[in-house]
User: Fold this.
Amino acid sequence: MPYRVLHLADLHLDRAFAGVGCYGELARRRREALRDALRRAGDEARNRSCDLVTIAGDLYENERADLETGRFLAGTFASWRPLRVALAPGNHDPLQPGSLYARTEWPDNVHIFEETTLRPLALADGLTLWGLAHRDPHWSGDPLVCSRVGEDGGVHLALFHGAELGSRPDGKSLHGPFRAERIIERGFTMALCGHYHRRRVDAEIGLLYPGSPEPLTFDEDGERGPVVVDIGDNGSIHCQALSLNTWHARNLDCNLAGVTSFAGVVDRVRDEASVAAASGNPECLMLRITLRGEIPAEVAIDNPALENAVLEASRVAVVRVRDLTDAAIDAAALAADPTTRGAFTRDVLAAIAEAGDDEERALLNDAMRYGLQALGGVEVGLR
Assistant:
């Protein structure tokens, strides 16, 4: 047989990027980088003599994509001939009436799965790809609710956009929920999936998530991008993960212990951010800085000013600051103070003692910090 597939997912063409602080020209650069990622994937597939490119959903974002995006996709896929392309629409690019999938004139090397149950596509003698489509952005069916395949022999692959329940990231939506153990139970050698933006290659249980080709949020650090899947004559599977992304997301923890002023905060954060930016191309780096440690209660963190200082010093494309510092407060001494600050401290300490859980205590600690800052005449900057 042998057969070679390049698998990718979650490109999210035409994404707005406002949620990560990208606007105007910077947002345009990010969107163009997504198109470049698709072009690079196709170039890599041809250079490696792949037979097929599979895309497991969220190829584009339906609410923002227009006919020009459809023309770009059709033209790009046509240029890959004789390479075949198989598309399984997801929740951000569902196969709805009026969608790009329905309105675009696709070249003859493109196959779009259209049903919400797995349907076969013959790839080679003894090799079949089964795929399905989300026809609604809220579809929550189990992709692996199907009859067992492969009773007549051969190798069977599944292609779909779905949420594997045993490894679901916190807060990730439940589109197409399934259990990984059902992949092999249903007769598939491997499921080529999309939806989770962090790469996971687990040939033993037959589960493959390539991850988004370019990081879309600050949480999408680490290796990501297309995965080449080789199917051998005996039905064996070998996966090779590729790292073709040009943008990177990085999370930096900055401990502010010992800092006694906002100027000191700026100096420490700027220095650490510059070191982080020096490890690659800062103009394609999304940097999220988390501030930690205890600082005096009267030191107010001005996030926008801090972000601007980092941008000026390091030339990083995008910077976001999260303030998770704790106030260095001598609560006992303040509670004994016969002033409004003392009365405020006593009230908050009493509420903390009665708090029902850690989240409530954390909120009350924040209230104490900001309340003491305000009572001390400090302008309060909320996190």
User: Anything to note?
Assistant: The chain is about 30% helix and 25% strand. Residues 283 and 317 are 5 Å apart (CA to CA). The mean pLDDT is 91.
